[in-house]
# Entry
Amino acid sequence: MAVHLITDSTSDITPAEAQRLGVEMIPLKVIFGQDAYREGVDIDMPAFYKRLTSGKEQPTTSQPAPDDFLTIFERVKAAGDSAVVLSISSTLSGTMQSAVIARDLCGCEDIHIVDSRTTITGLRLLVEYALRLRDQGMDAASIAAAVEAARGRLRLYAVVDTLEYLCRGGRLSRSAAVVGSLLNVKPLLSLQDGALSVMGKARGLHAAYAKISQAVQAGKGVDETCPVYFGYTMTDEKAQALRERLHADLGLEGPMYPVGCVVGAHAGPGACVVTYLEKA
# Structure
């Protein structure tokens, strides 16, 4: 019996990567006015960020419909297989709810839906963690349980140019935008256990990178059995600088991945991210 791994497009796993890894992708949508685009299918990142920064339209985003999951779930059920679904944090999107509705409609008990409580590079990290467990021969229920145990150790820290996009999209309160309203003040964000919060502010990028380094050092240490991932919106210069600082301070290194349209619509251009699993 095969174990299917299913995730959504906010993991920023490309279609080519998904095919190579054996992962099935459910796209979310980004919407400019009357134009709706499936992430990773109908619009590429350069075109998205060009439109985002034009200032003419503020995009919205949309979760998948239950039917988007149901098509895959029915195929899993018909084959007598099982599945693990890893979704964007339920605090950020209703994607998980759509998956739960689809599972109920399908009536397949061996579909295990996990709220990742994260997104972008954090979701990618958990998907790849699940893939390793599948390769080791774990069944779907065991994989889901192991990912749920690991997600509490996931750490995601980010520097954004402004909180304006997050406030416009309703992911942070308008009062939170005051943190980034002063000249050259860079807001620092944390996404941990599903909660997106402003963890502080720094005057200038160098100070912002130093504060993230301090946050990493204040924890239990980085689990070296799992990768460290860096992410960026639109351009990668700031992610490169953050990676250089964390390498100099802590010896951390890892690949960089672009942040896609759905999360980019809320983070805005000029953001950078580091994601890792903390030691147990």
